[in-house]
Amino acid sequence: MIPAGSREPPREPRRTAVQYPGGLWARYVWVGSGRGDALGDTDALEDTDERGGSHEGSVSVSDHGPLVSPDPDRLCRAELRIQGPLGAWSARFASPIFDEPQGLLWDTAGLLVVKYGFRAYALVGRTGELRWTYEARTPLVSVLGSSRLAHVLVQSEVETAAVREDGEVAWRVAHPDVIAEAELVGGRLVLTGYGGVLPPLDPQTGRSLGRA
After folding, report:
1. Pair (16, 92) in one structural domain
2. Angle at the Cα of 114 (from 132 to 105), degrees rounded to 5?
3. Which of 84, 102, 148, 156 is least buried, going by the fewest C-beta atoms within 10 A?
């Protein structure tokens, strides 16, 4: 992620492709502020995809940008394009900072949870329907999950939030340092701040597990 003001975002769209379990193929495309029109210049959904197949017909785009701003095209933009067993769908997002979108397939809930900027979006994996959205006070670092958890972990720079399948927050924990990385390791949530590794958390409850 590139914090606002650190350097000029690239003019050309960035792209990445991900294969999720269940036959979901995803393509993410993202651009800097005021460059939303460039998303339409990238390979169309009806063109050949990463698997060598082709999409037939047009695919409508669900634009979630207005959740962030009444004029989302002035901000940074991202588009997610999915090809799955039930067909194709696409969604767009907006962010006040230049950021790389990332997704987690929460298979037990059937949700694809995408983080972009300050928000996480829970989309039904097979149809793209927006189930819920979570907004943090600071940029999101990652979204994490496990089949052993009844929630996903939405990690921002200063706070961890556990969000259930219905979008309700199970718990939140604030941190004394800015979080740079977060990962689930051996049943623990391991957090690395700019000042070093923080005491790990129990991902079930958010309680501290003692020394790092």
Report:
1. yes
2. 95
3. 148
Which residue segment(s) compose the domain that 207 sits in? Answer: 137-212
Q: Are residues 85 and 187 both part of a single domain? A: no
55 pLDDT more than 70: no
| pLDDT, position 7 | 53
CATH of the domain at 212: 2.40.10.480
Q: Based on the domain organization, do 146 and 182 belong to the same domain?
A: yes
Beta carbons of 125 and 105 less than 8 angstroms apart: yes
Long-range contacts of 66-72 (CB under 8 A, 24+ apart): 66/94, 67/94, 67/119, 67/133, 68/93, 68/94, 68/95, 68/96, 68/117, 68/118, 68/119, 69/94, 69/96, 72/36
Q: CA 76, CA 36: separation in Å to the nearest integer?
A: 7
Round to whole Å and give the CA distance between 159 and 136: 8
